[in-house]
Every structure is written in C-alpha cells, then in structure tokens.
Amino acid sequence: PLGWVGRMMVWHEATVLAAAQDLRGVPALLGRYGRTGILRQYIPGRPLTRDMKVDSRFFEEFFRLLAELHGRGIAYVDLEKPENIILGDDGLPYLIDFQVAFRVPKRFLGDTLPLRWMRRALQSGDLYHARKHLRRLMQDELSDDEIAASRKKPLAVRVGNMLHAPLKKLRRRIIGKRNTSAE
After folding, report:
1. What is the Cα–Cα distance from 32 to 156, expressed in whole angstroms?
2. Order of strands, sheet of 93-95, starting from the edge strand that comes earlier in the sequence
3. In the chain, what is the greatest distance between 2 CA atoms, to the nearest angstrom?
4. Which of these, 176, 17, 38, lies nearest to 103 by C-alpha position?
5. Cα–Cα distance for residue pair 182/80, rounded to 1 Å
C-alpha cells in the first residue's frame, strides 16, 4: 500500500542526481531498477570514518563539490552521516545517497522567497557538517579561529536537532523494548 512512497522517493533521488550528473564527485545515474530502485555508478573507495587519513586536497574538492551543488539550487541535507561521503581510491570525495536532498525546480516555484530561504538554511547546514568533518579529520592543520567557526551551529541545524531529539529518544525506547522482549 505504500509503494507510491517508494516511487516518489526514487523519482526525487533520480531527479536530483540528474541535475548534478556532470559534477565530479557525484556518481552517474545509470537508470532505474524496477519501480522503486535506481542504479548508480560504483565508486571504488570506502565510506568516510572519523579515524581516516585524508589530505587537504580531499577537503578542497569536497567544498568545491558542495559549492557547485549549492549553485544548482541543491542542498544535500544528509552530510551529518560521514558514510554518505566516499573517499575514492583516487583520493577524491564522492557523495552518495541523494534521497533526502532538497531541490525544487524554478518551474515548481523553487525560486519563491520561502523556498529560497529554506534552501539557504539547509545549505548552511551542509556547510556546518562539512566543516565538522574537516575539524574531526584535520584538526591539527586548522587555526583556532577555524576550529571555533566549525563549532558554530547554524539556526537550521539547531532547530533540526530540537525536532529530531524527541524522535530519536522515542525510537531508542521502542528499539530498546524490542531488544529486551526478544531475550
């Protein structure tokens, strides 16, 4: 009964990927798989982790990629999860999983004030999470001012955390009950 949700999600992700197809750091959209799946180019590499070693070129490319996505009216939205960022075997960053990315085309009122404001707010969250990854992986190479700036949460992130906290607590309660009842 919820198949339509999957179809909408795959349509959305495919549309966002198509809008970013020519960007280095975005896997090619190869097509769709059934009614609720997409096929993307395989990127040789591994998901970003907190203990990974990267060089400054990685983050130069990462911020360039974000600037290009933002310039196309896309907010990635899911950078909090480092596993959505692939460190390619070539040393370059790649973004996967555009499922929750924010993009509203101009023809669908995407350039109206409320949607521009929302996009900018979400893009500020992208930059905050990118700086947080930079701080975690290359703190020794940052100035005190850069470290301090990386800790400043934009309003969109603070509001998102406030809204997400009770849901996370509820989910943990439910999962915790399931785990104890299974024993």
Report:
1. 33
2. 45-47, 85-88, 93-95
3. 54
4. 17
5. 31
Residue partners of 102: CB distance under 8 A and separation at least 6 = 74, 75, 77, 118, 119, 122
Nearest to 131 by CA among 71, 91, 80: 80
pLDDT of residue 183 exceeding 60: no
Question: Contact at 8 Å (CB) between 84 and 13?
Answer: no
pLDDT in tens, 144-159: 999 999 999 998 899 8
Residue 105 in tokens: 């085309």
pLDDT in tens, 75-106: 999 999 999 999 999 999 999 999 999 998 77
Q: pLDDT grade, residue 179 (50/70/90)?
A: low
The first and second tokens of residue 95, run together, are: 């973004």
N-to-C CA span, the chain: 32
Phi, psi angles (nearest 5°) of residue 104: -125, 115
Strand partners, 85: 95
Helix (H, G, I), strand (E, B) or coil at 47: strand
Nearest to 23 by CA among 59, 55, 66, 56: 66
